[in-house]
Write a structure and sequence with these properties.
alpha+beta
Length: 249
């Protein structure tokens, strides 16, 4: 399923209570965890600080590799998703994260009918679902747009469920009606990997360059980009893994 606007993949803040330092940077370890960390947990968090990805990631086959990009074919998967207006979460585009985290039981009892805890995966997928449509007239979607228009965008956030769930009906049914279980079919992307902070400016540059390279090499672009961020927010920027992905045929 491809949406008409840009798609972003993000790894929002799961843990609260990050302490700010005098330099203005956030402490890398959640303060609420400091008194509870075992040596194993400390090692795990330090691994994340230095960019280690310790959760399941989507399965794919590399079809082509060039100096500029990879072409990947992703296997079918099952996703839990929620669509919302960020204004419902005080303007936070990642506001749906807690809804999905509650569904899988990341922060307590799972909010599904079994109930069954579901392992966290990466990346977390955030898609721009377009603009809210007025009751009296359609809203025309244009590239760019004013700040007011950007605030009017709906967002769809997904967690890709572990590969052990091969069909949507195999996943536990959500008790929160906002959560939808959806099957994603086999899909193909042109992908560029990069480190550092995935700012809007950097992402825009990567997307434009990738799109031109794909079209030059004869690939048909069939949807808008995805931005993949695989690390939690306390990962040192130089060790982060980011990916720009564009769907192709």
């Amino acid at each position: 399923m491809y949406l008409r606007r840009g798609i972003q993949i993000s790894y929002p803040l799961l843990y609260k209570g990050l302490k700010s330092t005098s330099t203005g940077h956030q402490n890398l370890i959640p303060t609420s965890f400091n008194s509870k960390l075992t040596p194993f947990h400390s090692q795990s968090i330090m691994g994340m600080v230095f960019g280690k990805i310790g959760v399941e990631t989507p399965k794919y086959e590399v079809i082509k590799t060039t100096e500029e990009y990879e072409i990947r074919k992703y296997a079918p998967s099952v996703a839990a998703e929620v669509t919302y207006d960020p204004s419902q979460f005080k303007g936070n585009k990642d506001g749906g994260f807690m809804v999905l985290a509650n569904y899988i039981g990341a922060l307590g009892n799972p909010q599904n009918t079994k109930p069954e805890k579901i392992a966290m995966t990466a990346p977390v997928i955030t898609k721009d679902a377009g603009e809210k449509i007025a009751m009296t007239a359609p809203v025309v979607t244009k590239s760019g747009g004013s700040e007011d228009e950007k605030k009017n965008k709906m967002v769809t956030m997904q967690f890709i469920l572990p590969a052990s769930y091969a069909k949507a009906e195999e996943a536990p049914k959500p008790t929160d009606e906002r959560v939808v279980i959806r099957e994603e079919g086999e899909r193909k992307y042109g992908v560029v990997k990069f480190g550092g902070v995935a700012s809007d400016e950097v992402v825009k540059e990567k997307v434009e360059k990738l799109r031109l390279s794909l079209e030059r090499d004869g690939f048909k672009v069939v949807g808008d980009f995805l931005l993949g961020r695989y690390n939690p927010p306390w990962t040192i920027p130089m060790f982060r893994t980011n990916e720009v992905m564009i769907p192709v045929e």
